[in-house]
Design a protein that fits this description.
Helix 6 crosses helix 9. The chain contains 15 helices and 19 strands. It is flat. With 558 residues, it is of the alpha+beta class. Helix content is 46%, strand content 17%.
């Protein structure tokens, strides 16, 4: 009887559009297809990662899809064909761990050009050796590439990537883009020759209609303060080329994670390009940047810092963003200091990440803090509320539904294990001399594998259900603590310092909302959302014109 064709996957990867070892991508595929045809293999799937590095399996979508298909047994493949081992991966750990997963599901790796078959002992050894060599080769390529870029920087040439704002790339070289350069000149001139900082400069540009021209590496038309500081620090604008200002370093304790780290020492040379500002002006900007960074360093210890009770909790009536505590100094008519004025203002009242809010009011901090505390005191002082809280504390959390779900999964699991044991017994009792032995064995193996899948699914559902029950019970304990605090709020609040009061507000209050304008009776507060799951979700405390507190979620509460 003619043996059935073994099913295989083809996998190809190229990190660039260049040919690999003299073979184009199409030529590599043709070689693998010829190999499959010669060995009577049936290609049932092709996977390709174009423009992907082999340093890690992360980001290689086709590779990960192929591994998922192998795990699910989608096509019942026996092999994965690759042109060379380096196309499968250049990280030794990734190669070996991926191969182990494949072999766990009965799939082996064949490297056509290298002549390696992982189903053979010699093939496994060669893969271990060559994958380590591939990783060393990748590191050598990275070092050679870096050396090439450093040399290019030393020659004053642009090192690739998008051109900085104010320049354009012409045949790989930087040339001034006059449509953008004028904004760069204004930024340096205004920053150095006036008293305004980067935030004030952002406002100045906005007020004068000077916007950033949209290009491929940014869609925001605003010159944000952060971007302005980056522009001011960049020596490219005074005709210099810098390389190595930020270095990619491996995150300690990880295998393939990297991050950018600012460097104190880097290559800085005269560039081949024309400067937009003078070197003297650029240096003056650096002096001011350094002076301002020191000026705004925190000099107060945490114990002396002002605690803003409602920062972030208080919401802007216009844009809904958090309002944050701030300070301004009031002066007498003769110019001498009168007092410090603490207030809440919308965080978008100044330019923040390209957003700006029109709500300009400064709400007296002490007035709002006292009003919120008074509302909570009135709420908890009401006998009906206190009784309701005590009742909630004594209420047992209802887990009947989740308990029933857990019991159902446990029953399914017992049944599945029982069926698995019976299938194993049937397999053990098969007669090898039976002419249908192979088919019967295959059928029973298939049933056994499906039963293992079912057991795994039910176990996962059981674990999830038990975790859900634990969460429900833990949340009940947390809510009980909130209720207990509320019942004794008035006494606790008087005893607390500013930091403790802030912590208490974070525990109890979700949001505080105010009117756009102060009401005729002097009120700012509109409503408060407490973190109280009395019924479902949060509870709104409405404030009527007589400043009494009402809450509809608690029966008979007035």
């Amino acid at each position: 009887m003619k043996e059935a064709k073994k099913k295989v996957y083809l996998y190809t990867r190229v990190s660039t559009t260049m040919q690999i070892d003299g073979y184009s991508l199409e030529a590599q595929k043709n070689r693998m297809k010829a190999y499959a045809e010669f060995n009577n293999y049936d290609i049932v799937g092709e996977y390709e990662d174009a423009g992907k590095s082999g340093k890690s399996i992360e980001g290689r979508n086709s590779f990960n899809q192929m591994m998922d298909d192998i795990k699910t047994g989608k096509d019942g493949v026996s092999y994965v064909l690759v042109f060379k081992l380096s196309r499968f991966g250049r990280n030794a750990a990734d190669v070996l761990s991926s191969l182990q997963v494949m072999q766990d599901f009965g799939v082996n790796l064949v490297c056509v050009e290298d002549g390696i078959d992982s189903s053979k002992d010699a093939g496994k050894l060669m893969i271990s050796v060559l994958s380590a060599v591939a990783e060393i080769e990748r590191e050598n390529i990275r070092i050679q590439t870096m050396e090439g870029r450093i040399q290019k920087a030393r020659e004053g040439k642009w090192n690739g990537g998008f051109a900085p704002y104010g320049y354009k790339l012409v045949n790989g070289a930087l040339e001034i883009n006059e449509d953008e350069a004028e904004a760069i000149r204004i930024i340096f001139d205004r920053y150095v020759n006036t008293d305004i900082g980067s935030t004030g400069l952002s406002k100045y540009l906005e007020n004068h209609g000077i916007q950033k021209i949209q290009r491929q590496n940014g869609k925001n038309t605003m010159f944000e303060a952060g971007l302005i500081r980056k522009i001011l620090k960049n020596p490219v604008y005074c005709g210099k080329i810098a390389y190595g200002r930020r270095k990619t370093e491996k995150v300690h304790g990880t295998r393939n994670e990297y991050h950018l780290v600012e460097q104190d020492h880097y290559v800085l040379v005269d560039g081949k390009h024309e400067p937009i500002v003078s070197e003297e002006l650029w240096h003056d900007a650096q002096v001011k940047l350094l002076a301002q960074s020191k000026k705004y360093e925190k000099v107060n210890s945490p114990k002396n810092e002002k605690i803003h009770l409602l920062s972030g909790i208080l919401k802007c009536p216009i844009c809904g963003a958090g309002m944050y505590g701030n300070k301004s100094i009031k002066h007498k008519s003769d110019g001498t200091k009168y007092k410090d004025f603490f207030y809440y203002g919308c965080k978008h009242r100044t330019m923040t990440r390209g957003h700006k809010c029109t709500y300009r009011k400064q709400i007296n901090e002490e007035l709002l803090d006292d009003a919120v505390a008074e509302v909570i005191v009135k709420l908890v002082s009401n006998p009906n509320f206190a009784d309701s809280m005590k009742e909630k504390i004594n209420t047992k959390v209802d887990t009947a539904a989740i308990d029933m779900e857990i019991a159902n999964y446990e029953k399914q699991l017992r049944q599945a294990y029982s069926v698995k044991s019976k299938i194993i017994e049937e397999i053990d009792s098969l007669d090898p001399d039976d002419r249908h032995y192979i088919k019967r064995k295959a059928d029973l193996d298939d049933r056994l594998y499906r039963m293992y899948d079912k057991i795994e699914d039910v176990e996962s559902q059981l674990i999830e259900a038990r975790a859900k029950k634990d969460t429900i019970e833990a949340e009940k304990i947390t809510v009980d603590n909130v209720y207990k605090i509320l019942i004794d709020f008035k006494r606790l609040y008087k005893l607390m310092n500013a930091a403790e009061r802030r912590q208490l507000m974070e525990i109890l209050v979700d949001e505080v909302h105010i009117f756009e304008e102060r009401q005729p009776d002097g009120r700012w507060l509109k409503f408060i959302k407490l973190k109280l799951p009395l019924v479902d979700g949060q509870v709104d405390i409405g404030l009527d014109n007589s400043a009494t507190v009402s809450i509809g979620s608690i029966p008979n509460f007035v």
